[in-house]
């Protein structure tokens, strides 16, 4: 009976674990190079969004994932503002095979961080006295799949740090 209990405990130790430990802003910047003149012009913005993720292994089963959102908004040909946020999280992840770990760090964790980054970016922009910047949701699973396809075609192998 004791052997069965020990085997059950060992199986639980190997069970996949996922836990969010902390979400924080790692870096934040805002620049409005044409202010105050930009506020006196007709507002017809064009928005360019770049997003990037990176992950780093910490001690043990802890991982830091950083989602970077960079937005450049132009009014005509002039840059109205540039805003960037690096939203980060520390995650405890264990018991996953390499493929599942790669997907978790590359898609699942950024999906958790995105609403925080979007809200931080919107708040930053409105504090700069510009209209709210409501970014559409992002499908990180689709972006991850595209990146894996690109890496496969290029003969690169994904790495988990």
Mean pLDDT: 89
Structural class based on helices, strands and sheet pairing: alpha+beta
CATH C-level:
Alpha Beta
CATH topology: Bacterial Protein-export protein SecB
Helix and strand element order:
HEEEEHH
Biggest β-sheet: strands ordered side by side in the sheet: 1-4-3-2
**Which stretches of 5+ consecutive residues score pLDDT under 50?**
none
Query: Any guess at the CATH architecture?
Result: Roll
Q: How many helical stretches?
A: 3
Tell the overall outline: elongated
What's the total count of β strands? 4
Task: State the end-to-end distance.
Answer: 40 Å
CATH superfamily: SecB-like
Helix content: 25-40%
Your description of this structure?
The protein is of the alpha+beta class and 161 residues long. The chain contains three helices and four strands. A four-stranded antiparallel sheet has the order 1-4-3-2.
Blueprint (SSEs and pairs):
Blueprint: H1 2-13, E1 17-31, E2 45-57, E3 62-75, E4 78-94, H2 98-127, H3 140-154
Antiparallel strand pairs: 1-4, 2-3, 3-4
Summarize the structure.
This protein is of the alpha+beta class.
List key phrases describing it.
3 helices, Bacterial Protein-export protein SecB, 35% helix, 37% strand, four-stranded antiparallel sheet, single chain, 161 residues, alpha+beta, elongated
